[in-house]
Amino acid sequence: MGFLTGLKAAAIISAYLAPVVALFWIFGLDSWENAQAHGIQVAALTVLIPLFLPVTVPLIGFGAPMRFDWLHFSKLEAGILFGNFALVIFCLPAAFLQVSVTRQFRRALSVPKTLGLIAAAPRLYCGAWGISLAATGVALCTGPLLPWAIVWSYLVIGYAFNHALARMNYGPLQKGGQEQGFLNRVQQQQREGS
After folding, report:
1. Which of 76, 151, 188, 194 is least surrounded by CB atoms within 10 angstroms?
2. Residues 148-176: pLDDT tens digits?
3. How far apart are CA 21 and CA 6, in angstroms?
4. How far is CA 21 from CA 36, 39, 51, 154, 194, in A?
5. Cα Rg for the chain, rounded, in angstroms?
Protein backbone atom coordinates (compact mmCIF):
# COMPACT_ATOMS: atom_id res chain seq x y z
CA MET A 1 0.00 0.00 0.00
CA GLY A 2 2.73 2.51 0.96
CA PHE A 3 4.80 1.83 -2.15
CA LEU A 4 1.78 2.33 -4.41
CA THR A 5 0.90 5.55 -2.58
CA GLY A 6 4.46 6.77 -3.12
CA LEU A 7 4.23 5.98 -6.84
CA LYS A 8 0.97 7.90 -7.08
CA ALA A 9 2.53 10.90 -5.36
CA ALA A 10 5.57 10.73 -7.66
CA ALA A 11 3.26 10.55 -10.68
CA ILE A 12 1.46 13.71 -9.56
CA ILE A 13 4.73 15.57 -9.08
CA SER A 14 5.94 14.36 -12.48
CA ALA A 15 2.70 15.43 -14.16
CA TYR A 16 2.92 18.93 -12.69
CA LEU A 17 6.61 19.21 -13.61
CA ALA A 18 6.17 17.89 -17.18
CA PRO A 19 5.61 21.35 -18.69
CA VAL A 20 8.72 22.67 -16.90
CA VAL A 21 10.81 19.77 -18.21
CA ALA A 22 9.40 20.33 -21.70
CA LEU A 23 10.30 24.04 -21.50
CA PHE A 24 13.79 23.12 -20.31
CA TRP A 25 14.38 21.08 -23.47
CA ILE A 26 12.58 23.50 -25.81
CA PHE A 27 14.69 26.39 -24.58
CA GLY A 28 17.94 24.48 -24.01
CA LEU A 29 18.22 22.56 -27.25
CA ASP A 30 18.76 24.80 -30.24
CA SER A 31 18.03 22.16 -32.89
CA TRP A 32 16.65 18.66 -33.46
CA GLU A 33 20.13 17.52 -34.48
CA ASN A 34 21.46 18.71 -31.13
CA ALA A 35 18.76 16.67 -29.35
CA GLN A 36 19.61 13.55 -31.37
CA ALA A 37 23.35 13.94 -30.83
CA HIS A 38 22.82 14.04 -27.05
CA GLY A 39 19.87 11.66 -26.82
CA ILE A 40 21.29 9.64 -23.92
CA GLN A 41 21.88 12.74 -21.77
CA VAL A 42 18.44 14.12 -22.69
CA ALA A 43 16.74 10.83 -21.77
CA ALA A 44 18.72 10.43 -18.54
CA LEU A 45 18.01 13.97 -17.33
CA THR A 46 14.34 13.70 -18.31
CA VAL A 47 13.97 10.54 -16.19
CA LEU A 48 16.13 11.80 -13.31
CA ILE A 49 14.46 15.20 -12.91
CA PRO A 50 11.25 13.93 -11.26
CA LEU A 51 12.92 10.99 -9.52
CA PHE A 52 15.59 12.95 -7.67
CA LEU A 53 14.04 16.40 -7.47
CA PRO A 54 16.19 17.88 -4.67
CA VAL A 55 19.36 16.91 -6.56
CA THR A 56 18.26 17.53 -10.15
CA VAL A 57 16.75 20.99 -9.70
CA PRO A 58 20.13 22.59 -8.90
CA LEU A 59 21.70 20.34 -11.55
CA ILE A 60 19.40 21.42 -14.36
CA GLY A 61 19.10 24.98 -13.12
CA PHE A 62 22.77 25.71 -12.69
CA GLY A 63 24.97 22.70 -13.33
CA ALA A 64 23.70 21.38 -16.65
CA PRO A 65 23.92 24.65 -18.61
CA MET A 66 27.44 25.21 -17.30
CA ARG A 67 28.53 21.57 -17.70
CA PHE A 68 27.03 20.85 -21.11
CA ASP A 69 28.03 23.31 -23.81
CA TRP A 70 25.25 21.98 -26.03
CA LEU A 71 22.56 23.53 -23.80
CA HIS A 72 21.86 27.18 -24.48
CA PHE A 73 19.56 29.46 -22.45
CA SER A 74 19.01 33.17 -22.84
CA LYS A 75 18.39 35.21 -19.70
CA LEU A 76 14.73 35.55 -20.70
CA GLU A 77 14.39 31.78 -21.19
CA ALA A 78 16.06 31.11 -17.85
CA GLY A 79 13.68 33.57 -16.18
CA ILE A 80 10.62 31.98 -17.81
CA LEU A 81 11.86 28.52 -16.83
CA PHE A 82 12.48 29.57 -13.21
CA GLY A 83 9.11 31.35 -13.01
CA ASN A 84 7.24 28.30 -14.26
CA PHE A 85 9.13 26.02 -11.90
CA ALA A 86 8.39 28.31 -8.93
CA LEU A 87 4.69 28.43 -9.87
CA VAL A 88 4.48 24.63 -10.07
CA ILE A 89 6.23 24.17 -6.73
CA PHE A 90 3.96 26.81 -5.16
CA CYS A 91 0.85 24.96 -6.41
CA LEU A 92 1.92 21.38 -5.57
CA PRO A 93 0.82 21.45 -1.91
CA ALA A 94 -2.64 22.64 -3.01
CA ALA A 95 -2.77 19.74 -5.44
CA PHE A 96 -1.98 17.30 -2.64
CA LEU A 97 -4.59 18.94 -0.43
CA GLN A 98 -7.11 17.70 -2.99
CA VAL A 99 -6.02 14.21 -1.90
CA SER A 100 -6.59 15.16 1.74
CA VAL A 101 -10.07 16.37 0.90
CA THR A 102 -11.21 13.48 -1.32
CA ARG A 103 -8.78 10.64 -0.56
CA GLN A 104 -8.36 10.27 -4.32
CA PHE A 105 -5.00 10.92 -5.94
CA ARG A 106 -6.49 11.62 -9.35
CA ARG A 107 -8.17 14.75 -7.91
CA ALA A 108 -4.71 16.27 -7.43
CA LEU A 109 -4.44 16.50 -11.21
CA SER A 110 -7.34 18.97 -11.41
CA VAL A 111 -5.54 22.26 -11.95
CA PRO A 112 -8.77 24.34 -11.67
CA LYS A 113 -9.53 22.78 -8.25
CA THR A 114 -5.94 23.30 -7.16
CA LEU A 115 -6.01 26.96 -8.14
CA GLY A 116 -9.48 27.34 -6.62
CA LEU A 117 -8.20 26.07 -3.31
CA ILE A 118 -5.39 28.64 -3.31
CA ALA A 119 -7.82 31.41 -4.34
CA ALA A 120 -10.23 30.43 -1.54
CA ALA A 121 -7.79 31.58 1.14
CA PRO A 122 -4.51 32.90 -0.26
CA ARG A 123 -3.43 34.31 3.11
CA LEU A 124 -3.83 30.92 4.86
CA TYR A 125 -2.12 29.13 1.98
CA CYS A 126 0.83 31.54 1.96
CA GLY A 127 1.00 31.27 5.75
CA ALA A 128 1.34 27.50 5.41
CA TRP A 129 4.11 28.11 2.88
CA GLY A 130 5.87 30.39 5.38
CA ILE A 131 5.72 27.71 8.07
CA SER A 132 6.97 25.14 5.55
CA LEU A 133 9.92 27.26 4.50
CA ALA A 134 10.80 27.96 8.14
CA ALA A 135 10.63 24.25 9.01
CA THR A 136 12.83 23.39 6.03
CA GLY A 137 15.28 26.18 6.94
CA VAL A 138 15.56 24.93 10.51
CA ALA A 139 16.09 21.39 9.23
CA LEU A 140 18.87 22.54 6.89
CA CYS A 141 20.69 24.12 9.84
CA THR A 142 20.88 20.89 11.86
CA GLY A 143 24.12 19.64 10.34
CA PRO A 144 24.60 15.93 11.00
CA LEU A 145 20.96 15.62 12.11
CA LEU A 146 19.74 16.75 8.69
CA PRO A 147 18.12 13.46 7.55
CA TRP A 148 16.18 13.20 10.81
CA ALA A 149 15.28 16.90 10.74
CA ILE A 150 14.02 16.75 7.14
CA VAL A 151 11.62 13.94 8.09
CA TRP A 152 10.32 16.02 10.99
CA SER A 153 10.04 19.10 8.78
CA TYR A 154 7.82 17.10 6.39
CA LEU A 155 5.49 16.40 9.30
CA VAL A 156 5.36 20.12 10.09
CA ILE A 157 4.74 20.92 6.42
CA GLY A 158 1.91 18.39 6.16
CA TYR A 159 0.32 19.73 9.32
CA ALA A 160 0.66 23.38 8.21
CA PHE A 161 -1.11 22.85 4.90
CA ASN A 162 -3.81 20.55 6.28
CA HIS A 163 -4.43 22.96 9.17
CA ALA A 164 -4.79 25.80 6.66
CA LEU A 165 -7.22 23.66 4.65
CA ALA A 166 -9.33 22.97 7.73
CA ARG A 167 -9.56 26.73 8.42
CA MET A 168 -10.42 27.69 4.82
CA ASN A 169 -13.85 28.62 3.59
CA TYR A 170 -13.25 26.32 0.62
CA GLY A 171 -16.42 25.80 -1.43
CA PRO A 172 -16.22 22.02 -1.95
CA LEU A 173 -15.83 21.53 1.80
CA GLN A 174 -19.05 23.45 2.38
CA LYS A 175 -21.16 21.68 -0.29
CA GLY A 176 -21.24 18.23 1.24
CA GLY A 177 -20.53 14.96 -0.51
CA GLN A 178 -17.17 13.26 -0.25
CA GLU A 179 -15.36 16.54 0.40
CA GLN A 180 -17.57 17.12 3.46
CA GLY A 181 -16.08 13.91 4.90
CA PHE A 182 -12.75 15.69 5.34
CA LEU A 183 -14.33 18.51 7.30
CA ASN A 184 -16.26 16.03 9.46
CA ARG A 185 -13.03 14.09 10.20
CA VAL A 186 -11.21 17.30 11.20
CA GLN A 187 -14.07 18.46 13.42
CA GLN A 188 -14.27 15.02 15.08
CA GLN A 189 -10.53 15.09 15.81
CA GLN A 190 -10.82 18.59 17.25
CA ARG A 191 -13.67 17.48 19.57
CA GLU A 192 -11.67 14.44 20.71
CA GLY A 193 -8.58 16.58 21.35
CA SER A 194 -10.35 19.14 23.53
Report:
1. 194
2. 998 999 999 999 998 998 888 766 665 55
3. 21
4. 17, 15, 13, 25, 47
5. 19
